Amino acid sequence: MTNTPVATLHILNKRPEHHRFRACLDAMAPGDVLLLIENAVLALADAGVHLPEGTRALQADCVARGLVTRPGEKVELLDYLGMTHLTDRFSRLISW
């Protein structure tokens, strides 16, 4: 029997300077996906924060904070339906 790692969706709502923001990034494994919601989308305006490839952000929270993705940053913006579809793809979710 092999122990195949299960990909995890990390749903992060903490500001980039919050200790859980760094803890979340440190906990990510290959195949995991990061979804930024609420105040975590502020990371899109912080050039000092490196976001993992494949990061997604909730569009409504970006709009509410007047944010767009950084130039060169490949962050997919999701609406609520897209967020629902994303959460449905993962059997393991962690909210930070």
TrEMBL record:
Highest taxon listed in the record's lineage: Bacteria
* UniProt cross-references to Pfam families, sorted A to Z: DsrH
Q: Which SUPFAM superfamilies match?
A: DsrEFH-like
Give the coiled coil ranges: none
Q: What InterPro entries does the database record attribute to this sequence?
A: DsrEFH-like, Sulphur_relay_TusB/DsrH
Q: What is this protein called?
A: Sulfurtransferase complex subunit TusB
Q: What is the lineage of its organism?
A: Bacteria, Pseudomonadati, Pseudomonadota, Gammaproteobacteria, Pseudomonadales
